[in-house]
C-alpha cells in the first residue's frame, strides 16, 4: 500500500517533546524538506533535494512530529485525481479501485490507510478538500495568509494555502495549531492565527448556528451526493443548528475564472524549471533555445504542458485584458457574493465535491470533466476564505464530504461546527 502513497519514504524525527510528539505525519511532495527529495510528482524535479525546510516543516519538527514520507500528488498540484503524477497513481484506501482525489491524494490516502496519523497538503482550488472528501477524512483549507507558504513550490500563489488532514476534526485542528501563524519569510501571512487555539474549538457545539446553503452549489450535483449532504444537514439541525438558502450568483463563472488565473500564475511560476536554474536537464547541445525546450519537453507531463500553454496565451499581449483581467473582475465579484452570503449566515454548507470518487482511469482523457468537478471548491480560493471538508456519509459505498465555508480567519467557527458531525 505505502508504495503508491509515498514518493519518498524517509523518516525525519522531530524534537523529543511538543504537542505532536509521537504523531506521524505525511507531507505532500511539493513542500520542501531539507536533505529529502521533493519532486512535486514530476520528472522535472525527480532528483531535486532542497537545501532548506519549509516553515511548516520546521514547525512540525519543533512540535515533535515524525515525518514518515513525502506523499504522492498530481504533478505540480495540477489535477483532481492524483493520476498525473510521474510516479504513478495512488489508489483510494476508502474505496479501492477509485481515485483518492487530488492533487494531495497521497496525503489523504496516507491518513485513510493509517500510514500516518496526520498529513499536510496544499489547496489551490480544492486540493486538500477534494481528497479529504474522496478518502473519507477531514481536510482544512485555511484563510489565505494564515499559514506560511515559504518552502511550498508555487503553482498558483495568489490562491494557495497549505492545509492539514486528520482522521477527526480535532486531529486536523491540532495540526493547524502547529502550522498557523505569521512568518517573516512569507509577507502574505497575517497575525490572525498567532493566538488561536483550533483544537480546543472542536467542541461539537452547534446550538444556534445559522447555516446558509448556496443553491448554486447543489445544482448539477450527483443525486446520491445531494441526499447524503441533506442527511448531514438534518443531523446538524437535530443538534441545534438552523439553515436557510442563500445565493451566490457569481459562482457560475468561478471555474473559468479560477482556471485562467491558476494557469496564468502557473505559466509564470514554472518558467524557472528550464534544466539550468532548476530541474531536469536534457543536456546542452550548442543551442540554448533547444536546450531549454528539450528540458521542458522531457521534464513536464501533458497536463502541466497544457496549463503552461494556456496560461501563457491568457497573459500574452492582446489577450491579457480579454482573459486575465476579466478573470480578476470575476474573482472580485465572487468575493463580494461570499461577503454578502456570510452576512446572513455563520457558515455556508455544500457538498465538497459534486460527484463521488471516479474510478481509476475513468477521467484521464477528459480534462474538462475534471475542471468542472472543482465547481464547489474553487470559489472559496477565489474569495481567500477558509473551508473544511468533513465526512458526511456514503453513497453506494463511496465517501461523500460536506464543505463548510466561513468568514476570513473564521477557522475556529468551522472547526466547532464540523466537529458536531464527526
Ligand atoms: N483541481 C484543481 C486544479 O487542478 C485544484 C488543484 C489544487 O488545489 N492544487 O487546479
From TrEMBL:
Catalytic activity: L-glutamyl-tRNA(Gln) + L-glutamine + ATP + H2O = L-glutaminyl-tRNA(Gln) + L-glutamate + ADP + phosphate + H(+)
Annotated PROSITE patterns: AMIDASES
Alphabetized UniProt keyword annotations: ATP-binding, Ligase, Nucleotide-binding, Protein biosynthesis, Transferase
Keyword Nucleus in annotation: no
Role noted for this protein: Allows the formation of correctly charged Gln-tRNA(Gln) through the transamidation of misacylated Glu-tRNA(Gln) in organisms which lack glutaminyl-tRNA synthetase. The reaction takes place in the presence of glutamine and ATP through an activated gamma-phospho-Glu-tRNA(Gln).
Family, per entry: Belongs to the amidase family. GatA subfamily.
One GO CC annotation: glutamyl-tRNA(Gln) amidotransferase complex
Organism superkingdom: Archaea
Single biological process term from Gene Ontology: translation
Residues in Amidase domain copies: 11-414
Stated name of the protein: Glutamyl-tRNA(Gln) amidotransferase subunit A
EC number from the UniProt entry: 6.3.5.7
Molecular function as annotated in GO: ATP binding; glutaminyl-tRNA synthase (glutamine-hydrolyzing) activity; transferase activity
Residue numbers annotated as active site: 28, 103, 127
